[in-house]
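BUG: 3D viewer hangs when loading the predicted structure for this chain

Environment: internal workstation, default settings.
Expected: structure renders.
Actual: progress bar stalls at 90%.

Input used:
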Amino acid sequence: MSKVLYIVFLQLIVLSCKGQPDKLIACGSDKVIIISANKTNEDLESRMLWEWSPYDAKSLPEEYKKKYFIKIDECKPTKNGNQIMITASTGGVAIIDKPTKDVVFYSYLANAHSIEELPNDRIAVAGSNHEKGNCVAIFNRHTFGEEPITKSKLFAGHGLVWDKTKQLLFVLGGNELQTYKLIHWESKSPKIELQERWDLPDVGGHDLISYSSDELLITTNNNVWVFNKSNGGFKIFTQLGNQKFIKGLSVSKGENKRIAFVQGEEKWWSHNIYLTNPYLKITQPSINFYKVRWWNYD
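Structure tokens produced before the viewer hung:
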């Protein structure tokens, strides 16, 4: 490519990204990172804006640092980006204070795979395949290291989305999608009550994200699906249909939606993060990436 054409190519990249989010949060191994999404090279180090490992958290017990956060599988910003909720398949559950990198909450749930903030300073955590997992667990975010307040059985829990309008918790398992209602939520003994369930059109539910006010996106072993909350229907998400083993998925807001995803290329993880519109591949051989989310904050 000539120098002139290369400059034109870079200008087109910049123009196509204008108005779109330009940062991502991703996790894998024992790392959580925030990176630039708009540079044209694949190298991750030049993109790095913020990073965290368990050893950055002074309040985290040694057992958690050495054992429970070695395979981080979820990272969701909350509190306007000032905090980050994380889980690990090795059992760790935490909320990180982004400025200090310390934790403001931590606990344990076997094979934890996702986390969601609920009203009244409570959080939901999905536990996947394990004799002490396979559940949705509710924690008080102000009690460190304690057992869940309540649990509900769910095979291979992998994803969580709180619908504030409907006041329902959507929960993804290995072969079904469920909704739960919050019961006695103002009391000290809250519960969650199963409302509806739908069989997935494919096996291996992996990720669950909000797509619109009435739609969710679900990734499974062989496809990405749009789920309609009103009619309970599933259809192929055409932008990524027939893509197998997508572990983490995020779609930017606005008209020109940009997709970020991690695909299970090395067993259940990948060393790559993929972006569409325009296409980019971000590579880091030292991190086994699992989830990626758009970072919509400064």
